[in-house]
Amino acid sequence: MTDENNIGLSRRRVLGGLGAVGIASAGAGLGTTAYFSDQQTFEGNTLTAGTLALSVTQSIHTLDQDGIGPDEVNYFGESDGPVMVEGPIEITDAKPGDEYEFCWEVEIEGNPGYAMVKVDGVSDQTGAEVGTVFADDLFDIDDDDDMVTIGEAATATATLTLCEEQEEGPATPTGEEVEIFPQGEEDNSLGALLAVLGDGLIVPSGTEEDELCHDTECPVKLCVTIEIDTDVGNELQGAESSFDLQVHAEQCRHNDEPFETGENGAA
Description:
Elements: H1 11-31, E1 53-64, H2 70-76, E2 83-84, E3 99-109, E4 113-125, H3 127-130, H4 150-153, E5 154-161, E6 177-181, H5 190-198, E7 201-202, E8 220-228, E9 240-251
Antiparallel strand pairs: 1-2, 1-3, 3-8, 4-7, 4-9, 5-6, 5-8
């Protein structure tokens, strides 16, 4: 036997052969990762906050100055009312025997919500405190301390007309009437009503005590009637009463104690 028939394996050939085996093994490994698979995509997902809005319409339903008072002529003219008022209501010549009815139609928009009426910036002064009329100017008033404010002299009632669904068209505030003030209180003066509203009054949505959440597009109407009795005399001259009325709204959802943490959504 000679060496010519032997297959020679040099170190270079052995390493080359092992390299080829390695490459083949690696290729076989890649081939085994092709699992069955599938995919679905949901694009454009969004999270959008809802809305809560408050719409309030102010009007004068009654302004009785016996047909000759300047405020009645100014607001009503030849009509009997009611009239819509966008700016502040200004009565410049109130006298004993006058009667006024001011109304606010309140509607929640966007989501069900609570509504609260509140007054702020209340000023109730006698003519002497205003500085326009003093006891010395009046024949039957002895002292400035005997003069009275409109809040003391005038009586007030507050009623709420509930929302009522209509067979055709939107709901209207023509439902049952609920007394808000005085509700049996002995003091039914305008000043007492302003004190109640100064703390904030949550507007009910129904006749039951716990009916407070208002549906959307279902307005209610709050009306305040003010009367100055003819028993009041010169002690009222020059008196001035003013206040800012605010209406607030809060969402009903997740809110068991409305208006406990602050005043939101004021109109």
